[in-house]
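Quick log. Single chain, no ligands specified.
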Amino acid sequence: MSYTFKNTEINNEKASVFETKSLLYLIGKSDSKKDIEYITFDCFNDVSGIDKKGNNIWDIQSKNEANLNPKKIGQYFFTLFDNSISKLNFKEYIFFCRQLKDDYKINKSIRAFGFANFETKTKNRIKKGLIEEVARVKGISVDYSSEIETFLDNVLIVEDDIAEQEYLKLITKFKNKSLKTDDFYLSVFKELRDIQSSKKNSLIENQTISNILDVISFNRHLKILEIDTFVICRIIGVEVFKYKSIPFEFFEYVKDLPRDDREDLIQECNANLSRCLFNKMSNYEFWKICEGIINYLNSSFTKDVEDIYVVNFSSYKPKYSYLNELTIKYLISLIIEGLK
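-> predicted structure:
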């Protein structure tokens, strides 16, 4: 089993806004979001998701083009189709695009739909475009009629229908998305877009892999937890897991300790927060606690860690041993530090 990368981007131009939207759709809105562990960029396709064991790939072709006609849609289906007949296990084929003309569709109100939702005339023109593109690229010596029918039965069309900042909100686990302004979410979206762009520095054209997870060696990927960490650090305002200093408001709890004990305690608090965020079981609890702290700080002028803890967590019973009182107080101090 092998797969050779073709037509990959080899420059360092900024990733398009549309590719970042498709990334956030995949990990924030798609039905398979909980199964995905890695996201790759311009490897198998514009954006692709991979599960933890490397058994499946969720493939996205992203086209930020206005007024796509049916024939061109069919032509743009080619990369998805080509992957569908490869020896690797592609779980889903997603065509992410601007909103298509209502005349093309049967049910005009839905934004994610299968090929069957196209009007008959539109289906025929899309199919014709794909058949011609397959013939142009692969030649006519092999009949792909059956494979094309199977692909069209399985392709998912997703129309972009929300603003950039709304896509970013999809991956935050706060109940109250308005904790931060739209301008804040938009700035984080743009920063994520630039991170995505930086992953395209490596040259992988014509490189061949034998197993899905071999793609990780090219460093054109992000782990879901890396994206999670990036977002939460931007929301809190400090690099939570790289913070080496003692937060000013936390000094009260360590001032009487010897220097080595201070360092050990800070390290322990950081380790506890890392365990909480990086463990899928406790990840939501981490977001929930952060939301409670930020909510309170937004409505209160106090920076007294003890008061904040008593008001919000005096009756809190930790679901996980590493979310102890001192760790929560440390987190409160970090968030206060980030809001300065």
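The longest strand covers residues 90-97.
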